[in-house]
UniProtKB/TrEMBL annotation, chains A, B:
Alphabetized InterPro entries for the sequence: TR_Rrf2-type_CS, Tscrpt_reg_Rrf2, WH-like_DNA-bd_sf, WH_DNA-bd_sf
MF GO annotations: DNA-binding transcription factor activity
Name recorded for this polypeptide: Rrf2 family transcriptional regulator
Any matching Pfam family: Rrf2
GO cellular component, one term: cytosol
Superkingdom of origin organism: Bacteria
Transmembrane domains' residue ranges: none
DNA sequence: GGAGGGTTACTCGGATAGATCGTGTCCGAGTCCAAGGGG
DNA sequence: CCCCTTGGACTCGGACACGATCTATCCGAGTAACCCTCC
């Protein structure tokens, strides 16, 4: 039960892409350099975001990634599902249907597994909280805590 | 991001152990037979629960596992942390401290990473929901949906 | 000067290895029960 | 009849393979910009 680090990378990149929006597409190499990440692997992590409609990619010279929509329309849930896939973390294997319960009539399984229900509802709380957090809010918090950072990052990239 | 199936196994076993409490310890072989699981692997999954103080184990003939406390004192969170470990699913690697941010003064990192904060708070919601669910509640729901099941299971084990 | 074509350099995207973690199995140390013998 | 010893079988616990997923890298198809030539 460990979340791919690509989720963190993607979130950071989205925030950065928003800051760099005026400069056109940003290539994987530039993004990776900003965070000290392996460029090729970062590229691989960003690809599912393109498929999910969070980013758009353009090839060729001066190509790179760009936000497909505003930060307010992107939630942490979007990023997670794009990279981790749509499946839930807890997967009920219905082990109760074997052994002791194998001889029971099928009607006994009409009701869902109580454990599965409890685990699902808890996980739903998590996903609900993730879906409630837009990247716009996250960025607002970040800029609130470090007001000059945005300009500093833009300058660093401009001089590169 | 996939939860070990051992979590589901452990939860089911705890409920079963509660039903079989009067019969003394239940061995791994009997537990596994009840769910059609590989006995040795189930044993391996239950061991951390003993270390966590959820179960007690006794060796030798007529040995096996037994609940260390009442179902009301065991939460889904206990089981999860016992098997998955205490670490959180989302681990912030502080990638913001490399590249662009490498030259910034240390004071810039006094404030926590905004992404980390948002992810953590969402995950906390999940853990809070898990900690609020005791196995006693889960079992109550299960027995409510299938009233005769408890007796049926006890009989199956008694005849074995 | 402007337009068109070719070159070039750079981009993403997917196909290909290595590392880490989850899954499954096996055997040994320890222990409890039971039976048998002696008092 | 009761107690102690001895044997045995069964248990958990950890050490040992296998497989899948995550991590990391490489190379190729494609494309947009640029430059040079020609009109």
């Amino acid at each position: 039960m460990k979340i791919n680090e690509g989720v963190e990378w993607a979130a950071h990149c989205c925030l950065l892409l928003n800051w760099m929006e005026a400069d056109g597409p940003v290539s994987t190499a530039r993004l990776a350099a900003g965070y000290g990440l392996p460029p090729a692997y970062l590229n691989k992590q960003l690809q599912p975001l393109v498929k999910a409609g969070v980013l758009t990619s353009t090839a060729g010279k001066k190509g790179g990634f760009r936000l497909a929509k505003g930060l307010g329309d992107i939630t942490l849930m979007d990023i997670l599902t794009a990279i981790e896939g749509p499946d839930e973390a807890f997967k009920c294997a219905e082990i109760r249907q074997a052994g002791v319960w194998a001889d029971l009539p099928a009607s006994a399984f009409r009701a869902p597994c109580a454990i599965d229900t409890a685990m699902r509802s808890a996980e739903l709380e998590w996903r609900r909280a993730l879906a409630a957090q837009t990247l716009a809010q996250v960025q607002a918090n970040a800029e609130l805590q470090a007001p000059g950072l945005r300009r500093q990052v833009q300058d660093w990239y401009a001089a590169r």
